[in-house]
């Protein structure tokens, strides 16, 4: 017990705030090396296939942006909530609802769309996500029910709802009972931004969200209130900040962004409705938010890193036959290492017994 | 005997079985929370317990070894959580979420070679005469050992918490860790043991799912039961006896959902599958709206970081 001791720092270390994410990435890669080795793969080859090979082509870089888009959109909203101690972990469900409402419009106006359809779908997608997030917000504000549990439960409900729609109203009438919708028509699909890739307008929205998120948190009174409520709820109470309003605001905002992410998936790379819209973007976005230090710019970087873990997982599966589940293990490990190394921000690690520095007598006695 | 009554027996038995994993996981988490720690990683520990239990049972051919392995795997995951939150003072909410995300990935990785493999059924109790009783016979006297173990755990946990000195100390640590520390109790050690117990119980819950309830391994086999168990602890206002009530309620909803269609009521199965999750939300709302009661019963130090020097 006395071999290793945590000594509180006078104040939080700025350097460590930036250093620990890098340290966590390094530790994850080291663990990945050992993991691949233990599984009987050549670790250097496997890590190369996982983390480097996808970056060596324009197509690969494009895919990186495509995968980072929903992650960043969701994580920006989640992080703003986390700052206020509002734990929305229902981004996966809100994303699904955004796809259901926005994508539903594409199907409803199939064959009779126009220039107005896509903007309408975007609005509907955001509204759908916000509506889904409004449920935990209402239950928290009105009935004091934990938003962690209610938002999470609604993820499962949303998934079953999607499943129902795909086996019923949304199914392609000419699709031989496959649970897939018709392919969206051209006026219901987000335009591509870079030729030769699948990068679509949604990526631009993600960048806008980063800028808007930064502005909200750094330059507005609302952002200030969010931070104060998160750090010291009692002080926020004395200052007269309306905590209920902030709960509503952060949940609606993160829901709308997650809904936009969902709409971006079905009107972007997928191009139709199907029962597996997201490989867990809403959950991975939680990791992205923490890895990015709950800061919009950090989230942008973290979003690319996590996107790499998705496409790296797919690439390594194809190239070396690595199991796809490795992606989830990597993502979980990364968050663990980040949380573990975060102790360095507020504490120094000291070796030896307390007060042992320069006192051989004390150590001998202990 | 009428047809409805004949149906009631199997429904009752199935309800008890469906309640069993919730009972294990929620009782474990209850002890953890009573010690002042909030571990949101129940779902992840359950999944790893499920896959490890299944793998060991397949390799050894012994379901007992499987259950022990499941409990050990759950405790191993919990140890990870304990090191991070208790020794390295990480945020408990974030670490619990990490544990679940990690558990989902790890269990899928371990389980990839075990998908679709059949496994021998766990033997069920048979007492001539009693098990053959109409309606209640199968439910009360025809279950397997784990169902009874889970039921026995309810009074056991209650007795430990409220009738033993160790239980009193654990509750004291959960109410006011600074005072308990000042009295000389090893706050971190006590919490670590509670966290390990919670992990083992979650692991058992998972192993019950993969070895007995389903019985097979499939990715994400727990399907949110770990989260429902967390909600159950709140529903029970941290009282073991009420956990039993809640687990039966959810077992009932789960089974009702399967039987509604059999009764000729025409609702799409996907919508019926939402029922347990919606029921969880409703139950949470009903309990949580009484703010005073939650405040009175929740451990006062729940989720707060403890550092002896601070």
Automatic annotation (TrEMBL), chain A:
<keyword id="KW-0472">Membrane</keyword>
<dbReference type="GO" id="GO:0005886">
    <property type="term" value="C:plasma membrane"/>
</dbReference>
<feature type="transmembrane region" description="Helical">
    <location>
        <begin position="15"/>
        <end position="38"/>
    </location>
</feature>
<feature type="transmembrane region" description="Helical">
    <location>
        <begin position="246"/>
        <end position="264"/>
    </location>
</feature>
<dbReference type="GO" id="GO:0022857">
    <property type="term" value="F:transmembrane transporter activity"/>
</dbReference>
<feature type="transmembrane region" description="Helical">
    <location>
        <begin position="325"/>
        <end position="345"/>
    </location>
</feature>
<dbReference type="Pfam" id="PF02653">
    <property type="entry name" value="BPD_transp_2"/>
</dbReference>
<feature type="transmembrane region" description="Helical">
    <location>
        <begin position="64"/>
        <end position="82"/>
    </location>
</feature>
<keyword id="KW-1003">Cell membrane</keyword>
<protein>
    <submittedName>
        <fullName>Sugar ABC transporter permease</fullName>
    </submittedName>
</protein>
<dbReference type="InterPro" id="IPR001851">
    <property type="entry name" value="ABC_transp_permease"/>
</dbReference>
<feature type="transmembrane region" description="Helical">
    <location>
        <begin position="276"/>
        <end position="292"/>
    </location>
</feature>
<keyword id="KW-1133">Transmembrane helix</keyword>
<feature type="transmembrane region" description="Helical">
    <location>
        <begin position="94"/>
        <end position="110"/>
    </location>
</feature>
<feature type="transmembrane region" description="Helical">
    <location>
        <begin position="199"/>
        <end position="217"/>
    </location>
</feature>
<keyword id="KW-0812">Transmembrane</keyword>
<feature type="transmembrane region" description="Helical">
    <location>
        <begin position="116"/>
        <end position="139"/>
    </location>
</feature>
UniProtKB/TrEMBL annotation, chain B:
<feature type="transmembrane region" description="Helical">
    <location>
        <begin position="140"/>
        <end position="161"/>
    </location>
</feature>
<dbReference type="GO" id="GO:0005886">
    <property type="term" value="C:plasma membrane"/>
</dbReference>
<keyword id="KW-0812">Transmembrane</keyword>
<keyword id="KW-0472">Membrane</keyword>
<keyword id="KW-1133">Transmembrane helix</keyword>
<feature type="transmembrane region" description="Helical">
    <location>
        <begin position="217"/>
        <end position="236"/>
    </location>
</feature>
<dbReference type="Pfam" id="PF02653">
    <property type="entry name" value="BPD_transp_2"/>
</dbReference>
<feature type="transmembrane region" description="Helical">
    <location>
        <begin position="192"/>
        <end position="211"/>
    </location>
</feature>
<protein>
    <submittedName>
        <fullName>ABC transporter permease</fullName>
    </submittedName>
</protein>
<feature type="transmembrane region" description="Helical">
    <location>
        <begin position="97"/>
        <end position="120"/>
    </location>
</feature>
<feature type="transmembrane region" description="Helical">
    <location>
        <begin position="6"/>
        <end position="25"/>
    </location>
</feature>
<feature type="transmembrane region" description="Helical">
    <location>
        <begin position="64"/>
        <end position="90"/>
    </location>
</feature>
<dbReference type="InterPro" id="IPR001851">
    <property type="entry name" value="ABC_transp_permease"/>
</dbReference>
<feature type="transmembrane region" description="Helical">
    <location>
        <begin position="243"/>
        <end position="261"/>
    </location>
</feature>
<keyword id="KW-1003">Cell membrane</keyword>
<feature type="transmembrane region" description="Helical">
    <location>
        <begin position="37"/>
        <end position="58"/>
    </location>
</feature>
<dbReference type="GO" id="GO:0022857">
    <property type="term" value="F:transmembrane transporter activity"/>
</dbReference>
<feature type="transmembrane region" description="Helical">
    <location>
        <begin position="267"/>
        <end position="287"/>
    </location>
</feature>
């Amino acid at each position: 017990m006395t071999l290793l001791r945590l000594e509180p720092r006078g104040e939080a270390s700025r350097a460590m705030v930036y250093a620990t994410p890098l340290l966590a990435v390094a530790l994850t890669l080291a663990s990945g090396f050992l993991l691949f080795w233990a599984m009987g793969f050549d670790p250097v080859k496997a890590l190369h296939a996982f983390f480097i090979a996808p970056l060596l082509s324009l197509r690969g870089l494009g895919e990186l942006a495509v995968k980072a888009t929903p992650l960043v959109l969701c994580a920006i909203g989640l992080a703003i909530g986390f700052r206020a101690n509002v734990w929305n972990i229902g981004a996966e469900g809100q994303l699904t609802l955004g796809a259901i409402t926005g994508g539903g419009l594409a199907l409803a106006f199939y064959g009779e769309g126009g220039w107005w359809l896509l903007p309408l779908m975007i609005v509907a997608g955001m509204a759908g996500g916000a509506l889904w997030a409004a449920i935990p917000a209402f239950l928290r504000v009105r009935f004091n029910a934990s938003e962690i549990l209610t938002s999470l439960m609604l993820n499962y409900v949303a998934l079953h709802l999607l499943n129902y729609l795909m086996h019923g109203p949304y199914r392609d009438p000419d699709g031989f009972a496959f649970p897939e919708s018709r392919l969206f028509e051209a006026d219901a699909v987000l335009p591509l931004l870079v030729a030769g890739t699948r990068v679509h307008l949604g990526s631009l929205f993600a960048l806008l969200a980063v800028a808007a998120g930064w502005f909200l948190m750094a330059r507005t009174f609302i952002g200030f209130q969010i931070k104060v409520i998160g750090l010291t709820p009692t002080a926020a109470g004395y200052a007269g900040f309306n905590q209920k309003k902030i709960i509503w605001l952060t949940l609606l905002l993160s829901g709308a962004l997650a809904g936009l992410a969902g709409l971006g998936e079905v009107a972007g790379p997928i191009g139709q409705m199907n029962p597996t819209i997201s490989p867990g973007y809403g959950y991975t976005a939680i990791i992205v938010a923490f890895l990015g230090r709950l800061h919009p710019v950090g989230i942008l970087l973290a979003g690319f890193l996590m996107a790499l873990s998705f496409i790296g997982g797919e690439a390594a599966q194809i190239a070396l036959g690595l199991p796809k589940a490795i992606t989830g293990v990597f993502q979980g490990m990364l968050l663990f290492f980040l949380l573990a190394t975060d102790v360095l921000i507020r504490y120094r690690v000291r070796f030896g017994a307390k007060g042992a520095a320069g006192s051989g007598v004390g150590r001998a006695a202990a | 005997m009428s047809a409805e009554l004949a149906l009631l027996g199997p429904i009752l038995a199935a309800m008890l079985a469906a309640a069993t994993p919730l009972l294990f996981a929620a009782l474990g988490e209850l002890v953890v929370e009573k010690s002042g720690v909030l571990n949101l990683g129940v779902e992840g520990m359950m999944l790893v317990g499920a896959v490890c239990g299944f793998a060991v049972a397949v390799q050894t051919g012994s379901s007992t070894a499987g259950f022990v392995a499941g409990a050990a795997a759950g405790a191993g995951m919990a140890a990870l959580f304990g090191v991070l939150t208790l020794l390295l003072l990480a945020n408990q909410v974030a670490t619990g979420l990490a544990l679940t995300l990690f558990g989902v990935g790890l269990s899928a990785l371990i389980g990839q070679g075990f998908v679709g493999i059949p496994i021998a059924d766990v033997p069920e109790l048979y007492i001539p005469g009693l098990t053959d009783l109409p309606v209640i016979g199968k439910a009360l006297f025809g279950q397997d050992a784990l169902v009874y173990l889970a039921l026995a755990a309810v009074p056991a946990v209650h007795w430990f918490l409220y009738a033993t000195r160790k239980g009193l100390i654990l509750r004291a640590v959960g109410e006011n860790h600074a005072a308990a520390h000042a009295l000389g109790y090893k706050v971190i050690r006590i919490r670590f043991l509670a966290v390990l117990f919670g992990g083992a119980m979650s692991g058992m819950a998972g192993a019950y799912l993969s070895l007995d309830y389903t019985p097979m391994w499939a990715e994400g086999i727990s399907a949110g039961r770990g989260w429902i168990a967390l909600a159950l602890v709140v529903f029970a206002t941290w009282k073991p006896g009420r956990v039993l009530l809640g687990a039966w309620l959810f077992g009932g909803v789960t089974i009702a959902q399967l039987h509604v269609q059999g009764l000729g009521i025409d609702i799409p199965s996907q919508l019926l599958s939402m029922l347990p999750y919606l029921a969880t939300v409703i139950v949470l709302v009903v309990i949580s709206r009484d703010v005073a009661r939650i405040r009175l019963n929740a451990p006062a130090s729940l989720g707060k970081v403890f550092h002896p020097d601070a």
